[in-house]
Specification:
The chain folds into two domains: about 190 residues, Chloramphenicol Acetyltransferase (2-Layer Sandwich); about 250 residues, Nonribosomal peptide synthetase, condensation domain (Chloramphenicol Acetyltransferase, 2-Layer Sandwich), CATH 3.30.559.30. Helix content is about 45%, strand content about 20%. The protein contains 19 helices and 15 strands. The strands form three sheets. It has a six-stranded mixed β-sheet with strand order 5-6-7-2-13-12, sandwiched between helices. It has a six-stranded mixed β-sheet with strand order 8-15-14-11-9-10. Helix 5 links the parallel strand 5 and strand 6.
Length: about 550
């Protein structure tokens, strides 16, 4: 039995009738490389063979009575692989739109909390039956992006010849504790809590002392004043900075106002739309080389260009720039639980009010650089640890009240959407011999943020997954076309920058070869010399 962290529980508390805490991935396989690969039975066998490495697949949630303390993970004594791995099919011809509609309907259903919090759907009929899709749906309380990559490595193989043996790995289920047992454990935990708070307070003091030297308190001051735009927010920010001993005249470390309203920043429904597409990784590398930015800067700018096009098309582009929340892993590798959530976030200016693509890229680059510096200055992991002291019952009620009162309709959001870039393996992977072709992320939404854009890199491609509230973004597939337009625009500008920089000697060599090929007359002339050769041979005699 293992207790969840405060961050893990936050993903449970966020759930309401319209907001779900699970994240998903849509994997597309080519079964022609191995008939039966990635199919229903082969998938069950692989999971059972490796279940000892897949703790989130074995654990079920046990909540403390009255929500007095954080819940626990227990190795499920009633684990049933047939409940979790399911069969689905799309009708002919199995187009991307049909597959996306099936995904949208599946992810719009909450997970059963009385069982391990995951489901896997084997979807047949894709592309006229040529491909097989797998939709893996797992609660964010069980994994974050980095630990999800670890699970992917445990389930898939780099060896295309691997086939499951059908022998399940051994593991030890646990008894479900009674309410009395849980309350006794909670009472002991409450007795230790003051000591934990003291230790955490000492660590926080030490971290904040470092932050004073590095500018972290300036960032904290900006963060506390951020919800108050205008003169009041400016006054609070200056007072907080002055008390922290930092420069009151420096520009804000974080966006100084709340994000502007857009059509997708409204209360969401429980219904979803999903769309996906692929961009070759080399195209993003071209932009990176031309403008000296990071790979993540390119992804953020492409998403920004997509959003600008979409909002312009609907004649509702705000004068202020949109703000994105960007998840950041704070995983150190020394965690007691490999799959425990260790994630924080930063805020970035998307420069959607900038018409020039290169200027937009530069603004995004500057914003991301500043956000990363400020993120490093704030003791994110320390602040995250305070979440363990929030009673789950209170936090859950607060989220339900936020949704019920439709707060998202009454005030501007702190950010417009989540944009996440997840690095993945760059070699081909296989499921019982079936090659994984694409790995599309299917993220989650929260009330007030009815759109999410996530990209996963895999084997030379960028696989984009867009999920949205069905009512707020009725034309989600239009964003797919706009994303390709935004990427084409950046690549064209990048190629124009790189063209004059190509080294002439090596790049112009093919032209010389072409010139030599245009001289057949000379070759014909040289072929008339056998007479001389014959003469020399006769002379040699």
């Amino acid at each position: 039995m293992r207790q969840l962290s405060g961050m893990d529980v936050s993903f449970l508390n966020m759930e309401t009738p319209t907001t779900f805490g699970h994240v998903s991935s849509l994997n597309i396989y080519d079964p022609t490389t191995a008939p039966g690969g990635a199919g229903l039975e082969a998938t069950k066998e692989i999971i059972l063979e490796r279940i000892d490495q897949l703790a989130p697949f074995r654990r079920r949630l046990v909540e403390v009575p009255l929500g007095l303390d954080l819940p626990y993970w227990v190795e499920d004594p009633h684990f049933d692989i047939d409940f979790h791995v399911r069969h689905h099919a799309v009708p002919p011809p199995g187009t991307p739109q049909q597959l996306a509609e099936a995904v949208a309907r599946i992810v719009a259903r909450p997970l059963d909390r009385s069982r391990p919090l995951w489901e896997l759907y084997v979807i047949e009929g894709v592309d006229n039956g040529r491909l097989i899709a797998q939709l893996t749906k797992i609660h964010h309380a069980a994994i974050d992006g980095a630990s999800g990559a670890l699970m992917l490595a445990a389930i898939l193989d780099t060896d295309p010849t691997f086939r499951p043996t059908g022998e399940p790995a051994p593991w030890e289920p646990e008894d479900i504790p009674s309410d009395d047992e849980l309350l006794r454990v909670t009472a002991r935990e409450y007795l230790r809590r003051p000591e934990k708070l003291v230790r955490l307070g000492i660590r926080t003091t030490r971290d904040l002392a470092k932050a004073t030297r590095s500018g972290g308190l300036r960032t904290l001051a900006d963060l506390m004043a951020q919800p108050m735009p205008g003169p009041m927010g400016q006054m609070i920010r200056q007072r907080l900075r002055a008390s922290a001993g930092t420069d009151v005249d420096r520009p804000p470390a974080l966006p100084p106002t709340l994000a502007p309203r857009t059509p997708f920043n409204r209360p969401i429904s429980p219904h979803r739309r999903f769309a996906y597409t692929t961009v070759p990784l080399e195209r993003a590398k071209t932009v990176r080389r031309a403008f000296g930015c990071t790979f993540n800067d390119v992804v953020m700018t492409v998403c920004s260009g997509t959003l600008r096009r979409y909002l312009e098309h609907h004649q509702c582009l705000p004068a202020e720039s949109l703000i994105a929340m960007v998840p950041v892993s704070v995983r150190t590798g020394s965690e007691d639980d490999t799959y425990q959530n260790r994630v924080s976030a930063l805020l970035a200016d998307l420069a959607t009010n900038e018409a020039d693509p290169v200027a937009r890229l530069r603004r995004v680059q500057q914003s991301m650089t500043a956000a990363k510096e400020n993120f490093a200055a704030i003791p994110a992991d320390t602040l995250q640890d305070y979440t363990q002291f929030a009673p789950p019952a209170i936090a859950a009620r607060a989220m339900r009240m936020y949704s019920r009162l439709r707060i998202a309709d009454r005030m501007n959001p702190p950010f417009n959407l989540v944009i996440s870039n997840v690095p993945g393996p760059q070699q081909p992977l296989y499921s019982a011999g079936a090659e994984l072709q694409h790995f599309y992320p299917v993220s989650t939404l929260i009330d007030g943020q009815g759109l999410n854009m996530t990209v996963q890199s895999y084997n030379g491609n960028l696989d984009f997954g867009f999920i949205a509230c069905r009512e707020l973004v009725p034309d989600l597939w239009a964003m797919v076309d706009m994303l390709h337009e935004a990427m084409d625009e950046l690549v064209e500008l990048a190629e124009a920058v790189l063209a004059p920089l190509q080294p002439p000697p090596t790049k112009k060599a093919p032209a010389k070869k072409a010139a030599t090929k245009k001289a057949p007359a000379k070759k014909a002339a040289t072929k008339k010399a056998p007479a001389k050769k014959a003469a020399t041979k006769r002379a040699a005699r």
